[in-house]
Amino acid sequence: MFETLTQKLEAALKRLRGEGRISEANIAESLREVRRVLLDADVNYKVVKDFIDTVQQKSLGQEVISSLSPGQLIIKIIHDELVALMGSEKSDIALSSSPPSVILIAGLQGSGKTTFSAKLARLLKAKGRSPLLVAADVYRPAAIDQLEVLGKQIEVPVFVNRKDSALTIAENSIVHARLNARDTVIIDTAGRLHVDEEMMQEIEKVKKSVQPHEILFVVDAMTGQDAVNTAKAFHDRLNFDGVVLTKLDGDARGGAALSIRSVVQKPIKFIGTGEKMDALEPFYPDRMASRILGMGDIVTLVEKAQETFDKEKAQKLEQKIRKAQFTLEDFYDQLQEIKKMGSLSQMISMIPGASRLGNLNDVDEKELKYVEAIIQSMTIEERQHPAIVNGSRRKRIATGSGTSVQEVNKLLKQFFEMQKMMKNIGKGKNFNRMLTQRFH
Fold first, then answer.
1. In this predicted model, what pLDDT tens digit does every residue of 193-245 receive, in sequence order?
2. H helix or E strand, kind and range, residue 134
3. Quick one: 3-86 is in which CATH superfamily?
């Protein structure tokens, strides 16, 4: 997420390190680079101008605190301004005290509205609500089929009527929700262009009739500046309550995330970070600013781990590590747990300073599939006692997993090294000294 923007910003600010004082000359030089980086990221020109002017005004003449370098001080100022630019604090969706709460989903075709609707239903269900998905996209038959499939996948009912108009479907879905004790109605509408007057009038009628408690505008983060222009046009007609940025796991340059709130004055409420149903995060401006500046996002990483990992399993694993009983079976189980948290590159982006470790950012997730295939090709006895895997067994495992004997050897060697490290942890050796011995 925003890897290129992060790397370019770090390069732009690098030259300030080592300076004893922030001067007009060195701040102007660095901010010229920052301005160029933001424009390259497709951030709105006016937003960039105002942002740079504010940072420059707050930076000039500031004395460097003894514990901070000029670079660190300016990064802090830029971080604070990025947070302000994206909304200062997390904004929740509005839910009615008298059910059902109605959430209307709008946006362009192909922006990911249907997938987001299902993700939101899953998220609300996990929080104890009883959502109902409504298939109100009557123009694209595949959208109704897609929502039905996703609804079945997350075990949330979908209100469907393939004969009525979007307005009638939306109205009837509210009645259906009341009769079936569903406290949240999520209406997935058709994608439409803001220049299509007939379609815009249709969604205005739906809004007027069902009086939603929340209107969310879904936008593809990869469209950059166009996303901002579209959001403004939709906002003028619908006065929506919040923005959802999808496809942030792709080649999003960051322009939409950094511009959209400033232009429409409505908060970003969610970000989509993948195709899986759990790949949806509430938007925290401060955490996103930290990620963009390469500071990581440990809080979100820990939250993901808490949601994913089984506490009882974790305690059993800790005991195994302490007793030096960690096996390839345990290693495979941990891989499955980690995969539930999202893509490796996404998790790595949450680690402070990871943007400077190119080898980590370029991690090939296909390699993990080979590792899984190798372990799956082993017998239970081999997974639990890897030391018994001799030459003939390695050859059989390589054939069964579609890999080479060398790859099997490499995995076993790395596992034995990890096992030795864990044995030392179990014995209570100094962890820092152990790392020093291991990696230097």
1. 776 888 889 999 999 999 999 999 998 877 767 777 888 888 988 999 999 98
2. strand 131-136
3. SRP54, nucleotide-binding domain (1.20.120.140)
Contact between residue 225 and residue 259 where contact means Cβ atoms under 8 Å apart = yes
Q: Could you please report the per-residue DSSP string of 219-271?
A: EEGGGTHHHHHHHHHHHHHH--SEEEEE-TTSS--SHHHHHHHHHH---EEEE
Distance between terminal CA atoms of the chain?
31
Q: How far apart are CA 32 and CA 56, in angstroms?
A: 10
Question: Is 302-439 a CATH 1.10.260.30 domain?
Answer: yes
Report the distance separating Cα 9 and Cα 32, nearest Å: 11
On whether the CB atoms of residues 300 and 356 are closer than 8 A, the answer is no
Q: Tell me the C-alpha distance between 20 and 68, whole Å.
A: 10
CATH topology of domain 101-284: Rossmann fold (3.40.50)
- Domain positions in the chain are 3-86, 101-284, 302-439
Task: Provide the pLDDT for residue 372.
Answer: 87
Tokens standing for 365? 């997730």
Helix (H) or strand (E) holding 187: strand 184-189
Query: Of 6, 69, 72, 60, which is closest to residue 37 (Cα–Cα)?
Result: 6
- What is the token pair recorded at 288? 């996103």
From residue 267, give the alpha-carbon distance in Å to each of 194, 217, 329, 422: 20, 10, 45, 45
How many angstroms separate the CA atoms of 169 and 165, rounded?
Answer: 6
Please name every residue paired with 298 in a beta bridge, in sequence order, or none if there are none. none
Print burial letters for 328-357: b (CB count within 10 Å at least 16), e (below 16).
bbbbbeeeeebeebbbbbbbbbbbeebbee
Tell me the chain's radius of gyration from C-alpha atoms: 26
Report which of 249, 266, 347 is spatially closest to residue 301, judged by C-alpha positions: 347
Question: Are the C-beta atoms of residues 13 and 77 closer than 8 Å to each other?
Answer: no
Question: Using one digit for the tens of pLDDT, what is the confidence trace for 92-132?
Answer: 888 888 889 999 999 888 888 999 999 999 999 999 999 99
> How confident is the model over 21-72, as pLDDT tens digits?
666 777 777 788 888 888 887 788 888 899 888 888 887 755 544 445 666 6
Least confident of 112-121, 143-152, 325-334, 385-394: 325-334
CA angle 332, 337, 340 (to 5 degrees): 130
Other Cβ atoms closer than 10 A to 95: 17
Residue 130, helix vs strand vs coil:
coil
How would DSSP label each residue in 76-126?
Answer: HHHHHHHHHHHTSS--PPP--SSSPEEEEEEE-TTSSHHHHHHHHHHHHHH
